[in-house]
Structures are given as structure tokens and as C-alpha cells.
Amino acid sequence: MYFDDVLGLQERTGQPVVPREAVRGVAFRGSLILMVRSELGDYKLPGGGVEGREGHREALTREIAEETGYQCLWVGELIGRVLERRADRYDSTSLFEMASYYYLCEVSDRMEGQTLDDYKRDLKFSPVWISIPEALAANRAVLESFGKKDLWTRRENHVLLTIWRLQKAGVDLTAKISDRS
Fold it and tell me: Full-prediction pTM beyond 0.85?
């Protein structure tokens, strides 16, 4: 694992905790990374919440297909985790903690069709292959222009910047995908 970071409150405060677990895919095509673009123009890595008794790989395979229309062919190495901790939006007496696990993965060449829920459909989620610097710049612009408080854009920029720095330091994450045989 290359990163294990905490965003928001660094320590628990003794309040009851509302936990959520999510998985996110990191797929490359050459120098481009698979992202999901919203109607605001911001980008997030495909993925979402683990449901019921799902394992991480099962949840990630489902989420990638739902959000992008691509089939996940392979879920590989866990490259990092981000724990977001903040006051719960719905219960001021509780603390919200979301652990997002980032996995290298490979997706099919052909996009079949998204199966978005109402929330994601309203945001007009669409899959895009984009360079990391372009996604970072677009997310920064959205954060500045709209004063967007949604933490996924901040979280995804944190992760994208970490991946970009790893690549600049010589860590070839794309080789880990192509060498998986």
C-alpha cells in the first residue's frame, strides 16, 4: 500500500461513529486514468459503497459497471486508503467516518452502458479517460468557482495528487496492471 491518509478530524472525539466503507478503482489506458465526470465538471474515481455482505472486489466490480459501463476484468493490488472523518451531516451528536480503499484494476475495452441510480443520474455521471493533471485542474476550478463543499472532490484531488507524485517518483502503477499475468 502506497498511502494511508486521514482527511478531516485526525482523531476520534468519543462521539458515536457512523461508519461507511467504499471502494474505488484506479484504471489506466496509457497515461490516461478512468474517471467519472459530474455535470459540474468535477472528476471522481469510479466506485462507491460496499453493500451488505459484499467483499471489496465484488463491490468494486459492481460499482465500475454501474458508473462507467465498463466491465471490471481484474481487481488487483490495494494501493491506498483514505479515511474521511467529520461531524455527521444528519446527526450532530455523531461522527461520520468513511474509509475509501483504492485498488488498481483493469477494465474492458468496450463500454456497454451505465446503470446509474437516481442520485448519480441527476449528477449526469459520465465516464472519461483523462490525464491526472487535467482532472486535478478541473477539480480545482470547480472547488474555486462553486465553493463546492462536497468532500469527494477534495478527497479525489488528494488521491490523484498522490498517484501523480508516485508516478513522478518512478512508481509505474500501469506496469503492475500489464504485468499481472
Answer: yes
Q: State pLDDT tens for residues 11-26.
A: 887 889 999 999 999 9
Q: Which three cell numbers stand for residue 172?
A: 509505474
Closest residue by Cα to residue 81 from 59, 97, 58: 97
In which residue are the cell numbers 496492471 written?
177
Closest CA to 139 of 57, 8, 130: 130
Residue 116's H or E segment, with its range, is none
DSSP single-letter state for residue 93: T
- Could you tell me the sign of the dihedral formed by the alpha carbons of 49, 54, 57, 58, in that order? negative
Q: Per-residue pLDDT tens for 153-164? A: 889 999 999 999
- In 3D space, the residue among 123, 102, 109 whose CA is nearest the CA of residue 38 turns out to be 123
- Domains of the chain with bracketed CATH: 3-176 (3.90.79.10)
Rounded Cα distance, 151 and 141, in Å: 15
Spatial distance between the Cα atoms of 84 and 162, rounded to a whole number of angstroms: 16
Question: What amino acid is encoded at 80 in this protein?
Answer: G
